Amino acid sequence: MQEEQISRWSKTIYTRLAEVRPSAPNEADFRRVIDPLLERFCAKVGANPLAHAEYTLATGRADAVFNRLVIEYERPGVLKKTPDAPTRHAIQQVKDYITGLAKRERRSMERLAGVAFDGYFIIFVRYINGKWVEEPPIEVNEHSLKRFLTWLAGLASGIALTSENLNRDFAIEQLRTQNILRGLYRALSPALAQRDGIVSKLFEQWRLFFSEAIDYSEAFGGRKLEPLRKWVRRAGFEIHSSEEAERFFFVLHTYFALLVKLLAWLAVSRHLGVKLGAPSFAELVTADGETLHRRLQEMESGGIFRAYGIQNLLEGDFFEWYLHAWNEQIESALREIIRRLDEYDPTTLTIVPEETRDLFKKLYHYLLPREVRHNLGEYYTPDWLAGRLLVQMDNAFFTDNPQCSEGRMREKLLNTRFLDPACGSGTFLVLIIARMLELGRTLLVPESELLESILKNVVGFDLNPLAVLTARVNYLLAIADLLEHRRGAVTIPVYLADSVRTPAMGEDIFSHDTYEFPTAVGTFHVPSAFCTAGRFDRFCDLLEDSLRANLEPDAFLRRCQKELPLPPHEWNDRTISLTHDLYERMLGLHRRGMNGLWARLLKNNFAPLTVGQFDYIVGNPPWVNWENLPDGYRQAIKPIWERYGLFPHGGMDTILGKGKKDISMLMTFTVMDGLLKEGGKLGFVITQSLFKTSGAGQGFRRFRIPQGNGQFTPLRVVHVDDMVSLNPFEGASNRTAVMVLEKAKPTRYPVPYTVWRKTKGARFTYDSTLEEVTKATKRLNFQAEPVQPQDPTSPWLTARRNALKAVRKVLGQSDYVAHAGAYTGGANAVYWVEPVLMRPDGLVVVRNLTEEAKVKVNEVAEPIEPDLLYPLLRGRDVQRWKAEPSALILMVQDPVKRRGIEEKELQTRCPRTYGYLKRFEKVLRERAAFKRYFTRPERGGGVVETGPFYSMFDVGDYTFAPWKVVWANIASSLNAAVIGESQGKVVIPQHIVTLVACESEEEAHYICALINSRCANFAARAYSQEGGKSFGDPHILEHIRIPRYDPSNPVHRRLSELSQAAHEAAQAGDEQRLWAIEAEIDRQAAQLWGLTDDELCEIQRSLTELADL
């Protein structure tokens, strides 16, 4: 109705303008002609009357799109297309009025708007993201008047469709939210009790997809259950097991999905409903129970949206189960949701296009607290970070003024293709669409042409069913203003598909000519003859349409033969038989009430094979470790890892964790291989460890795609943003980098590597704009190259160009080997103890240290023999030039045999110690590291233990060296110290302390001086993961060259003396003396490594630069 009024009144006002403009009225007369027309329009659309002062003011409700709209009239002919002084004055007048109004009424300037209007031109003025945005003068015609009246009507609108308003009305604390969650949860359990029922099958299929999309192995159990239980209580629930937690998430996803679907219906109904006569959302508010259920069924099956000509939006999914468990409680709770939604105005995005973004992301954030989302492995990309990546991909497309090169920009707009292969809720897709809409308006591209370009060229995949649904609706809302200009059916190109494990041909004699599609109801076999880009979508449409019409298999075969003709050699008996069997199985499911779901899943799942290739692939792929994927999925994708050469380690290296892989690296290779055009670019938000770790990233850093026959497609690293210190994902310390690669060009080192650091005192948030983040940060323009020049897969060295050249002299293989300290396998609370009492009989009463232990055990105090008790050096005990043990460790490992002391020997030598360990036998046998290192499978299916149950890890002769250089490996700098014996026994460092075993005190101090030098510290920072778990790992000495100690070398002796002096100064707290000693150590270290004074200064300056930010 409102759109009809806008269309009618834009014509009326334009006709009146044509009559009045030739008479050249003054400003007051002109205003007297137009204001009454606007008054009458406001009355028709239900807006408040205009107020008249030095300008005309329209007012609206507090939560409407705009609260106030200022109209500044000028005498006809004053405004010019190229702004001159009078035009600029008019614009400034509008800004001044808005500023004064905001102060006077204490309103946000973002919720005020203004126009300057002279009958020939109109200028729209807004205050957005902290700055004024004035559009160029637009010629007055029916189209520009429509926009003006749409702004004016926005004041009379319902609630603005913004993430803030959605959160206010539908967050977890709201009673209406809690009512629907309770209703759904109570209905789910009895429905799942019917194992072969549709609800059970939908739940299983959701679980199948969801488990492959998140860090599922630990999401609902163990230590992560407690914070989940605490949060769920806020919604009025109690959960006691991982099974109940899983069901609650299914219910929560169902609620969120319902909200998203209803909003989609509301938006489409308001935009198109009047013109098409399709079911109106408003009807739901007053519908009786039976009608409401029927309408929701139509919505869930996609019928509502097909009536609007929209496909692949909501066409049956896992969340329609509530219709099969319908009861009065669900109906009542749903009515509350629908009543509130009916007050919203989805035309918000037409009026304020900057709101065209991922609307539901913030609501999802508030529904699930940060800790719970992170336990699920869900990290949603901030808009500013997505914007930065898009600019890095194509700076001209996303930032340039299109009018400067209209032809080139128009060509790009209509033909450039974008894919987000892990699109989540659609952040990247919506930002791309927003830019395309902006360019389309500026370049005057016809709406129908622009819509077709977006639908053809902006595509998303994801495995999370809820994310796909949300992304589709976000996509729909972004293009809603163009829908009335569509030339045919609109297919939302966001697919529930796996970008890594794409459909594959069968491998046995029975399935070699089919593609396999595993589901919760079994594996479907699709004839390969239909699985081509030109045929598959049509085949799926025929499949779905025939199922909906309840056709028999023979009738379906005749349709295929007629509407999708194949060459005779392909339409053979085998193809006919396979097609018949596929359809017959799906028809059986359909007749059991599955509503054609599996045909739609099929079409979505095959999308990676049929959508073609893209110019740009962008996104934030899932950061899920290989080891946390479900076993079945992990085994299914293992050959893909091997095909791309991403398992460079094998055997014990893989067991020891060097093969710890992140699925984001695999997605990088699979999508570049199959979905990116040659010369195209991929931009991913990805973990920085891929560039800085020796094991996990080694295969990735080959930067080439194997093509068979020994051929490779090279990949060029265009640029990397290192954002580790920014922690852009709210509350998460994952090591964030932004990477851009180009296909079919080799990488040339060094590559540009920008380190982002937060400016001291500056702040920004998850919701900040890119401009705000840029102002709050500094960017260091570094370069990156492999730390070992002869090995391009080695970790990257990153520094400024001159520092990079200087630090090369420090790098190389050390003459020493570093080791990790003793590892208990997670059972610190068993092996770590403190002395309580020394008994006269020689036994020591010890208490185990249970504070902060990962594995919870009972605290006990027991007398044991002192023989195997050693001083324990923990990470917290190590400082620069100072290390003091703070507890004891029970060392029961044989350093030669590399397993626990034999049980008979321990029982004989230390029976009390053995008895103490026996108390914790169950816990010790359940350690993951024990099962990995000290058990092996038998042929009959059993397991044999290869070491005593109390065996430890990372213990060798080096552990018992009399002198050691030690430093903590989780750090941002190397802070080493020398440790000797304590109370007559060697000191045992824990596993997060790195040690170098030495035979003499002098040798240890020589090494310590070099490790603590600024030269070595800068080298470590340049190639290792600053602040990460592996920063100070033993690999340090694989790359920092420390020659063997030579007591006859004066530089070596001097360094040893200086370290001893530094230890004394640190013990005395003499900082001034320590500073002078460290300066001399730098000079001596520079002499050892052959650095010039200038090179030493460059290294010192670069290290200070990193430390100061």
Please explain how this structure is put together.
The protein folds into five domains: 2-157, Alpha-Beta Complex (tt1808, chain A), CATH 3.90.1570; 170-392 and 402-496, no CATH class; 514-605, no CATH class; 629-799, no CATH class; 819-1105, no CATH class. The strands form eleven sheets. Strands 11, 12, 14, 17, 18, 19, 20, 21, 22, 23 and 24 form an eleven-stranded mixed beta sheet that branches. Strands 1, 2, 3, 4, 5, 6 and 7 form a seven-stranded mixed beta sheet that branches. Mean pLDDT is 85; it is low at 649-659. Strand 19 (704-708) and strand 20 (711-722) form a beta hairpin. It has 44 helices and 42 strands. It is globular and about 105 Å long. By secondary structure, the chain is of the alpha+beta class. Helix 6 packs antiparallel against helix 13 (328-341) and helix 39 packs across helix 42 (1050-1068).
How is the main sheet built?
Answer: 11 strands, mixed
Which range best describes the helical content: under 10%, 10-25%, 25-40%, 40-55%, 55-70% or over 70%?
40-55%
- Contiguous low-pLDDT stretches (5 residues minimum) are 649-659
* Number of beta-strand segments: 42
Q: Structural class of the secondary structure composition?
A: alpha+beta
Beta-strand percentage range: 15-25%
Indicate the overall shape.
Answer: globular
**What is the number of independent domains?**
5
